[in-house]
Amino acid sequence: MPDTVLLDQRSDGVLLVTLNRPESLNAINTELSTALRETLAAAAQDPDVRCVALTGAGRAFCAGGDVKSMRERSYQEGLGSDGEYHTEIAIAAMEARQTGVSGILHTMPKPTVALVNGFAMGAGFAIALACDLRLCSEKAKFGMAFRNVGLPGDFGGSYFLPRIVGQGVAREIFFSGEPITMDRAEALGLANRVYTADDFLPQALEYVSRLGQGPTKALGRMKANLNRSGEDSTMEEILTSEAVMTRMSRDDADHTGAVQAFIQGDKPVFSGR
């Protein structure tokens, strides 16, 4: 059986993670979910990984949950030591599964970028939203297709989407389940960049390479401040956070080196330290 997640640790500090179930449009089953969680947990702790880029093999980014195996997986996750199904065990397992993907993408102290090459539907759309940025092919499509299978949504879509597009538009996207073209996605701020399909990956990787070679610790602290700002912190709390994070960054080699380069009229080279 081929690996459900492919890894490419690039020399520019970018870890390219490819969901590899193209025959199923990279729909999430147990094997893919487990492999992705393990990959992201390791990447978050690895100092050589300075940016995580997530994409999909074939013509989809991720079509969401694997509907064919969904019911059986839900049942298996809810089995207790007594061999009986328990709703609370199933809920805890699902929470852990979502936190291990969307939660880590949102909180790891380095940039995470979705390279959306094709369909990103349901949970696939939610996972793309959990990333800091979304770089998209002109042929990509987003959609909250949960209504089509009678589910309310998962992997943080209800959290991330209204913070980007507002409550009114988020409700329309969830309730309708209609696909979103890249023209509309870009207008709504869901797509940070849209590239031509023919050379999508090279263009997207050129962009993320700049993040991989950036001041990693400072970018991680920016991310922490922005996360707090988006989570109903007060202005005073954000100012305190910015002060703390800035003071921590004063001791970074990237900061001292960049200041020296600026004084000398040179271009800074960041090591991620």
- The N- and C-terminal alpha carbons lie at a distance of 39 Å
CATH superfamily of the largest domain: 2-enoyl-CoA Hydratase, Chain A, domain 1
Note the total helix count. Answer: 11
Shape from CA axes? Answer: globular
Describe the overall structure.
- This protein has 273 residues and is an alpha/beta fold.
- It contains eleven helices and nine strands.
- The protein has two domains: 5-212, 2-enoyl-CoA Hydratase, Chain A, domain 1 (Alpha-Beta Complex); 216-264.
- It has helices at residues 30-45, 67-77, 87-107, 123-130, 157-165, 167-176, 182-188, 200-212, 216-229, 235-249, 253-264; strands spanning 5-9, 14-19, 51-56, 60-62, 112-116, 119-121, 133-137, 141-143, 193-195.
- A six-stranded mixed β-sheet has the order 1-2-3-5-7-9, with helices on both faces. Strands 4-6-8 form a three-stranded parallel β-sheet.
- Strand 2, helix 1 (30-45) and strand 3 form a beta-alpha-beta unit.
- The model has no long low-confidence stretch (mean pLDDT 93).
Provide tags for this entry.
273 residues, alpha/beta, 2-enoyl-CoA Hydratase, Chain A, domain 1, 2 domains, six-stranded mixed sheet, three-stranded parallel sheet
Please outline what is shown here.
By secondary structure, this protein is of the alpha/beta class. Helices cover 50% and strands 14% of the residues.
Task: Note the topology.
Blueprint: E1 5-9, E2 14-19, H1 30-45, E3 51-56, E4 60-62, H2 67-77, H3 87-107, E5 112-116, E6 119-121, H4 123-130, E7 133-137, E8 141-143, H5 157-165, H6 167-176, H7 182-188, E9 193-195, H8 200-212, H9 216-229, H10 235-249, H11 253-264
Parallel strand pairs: 2-3, 3-5, 4-6, 5-7, 6-8, 7-9
Antiparallel strand pairs: 1-2
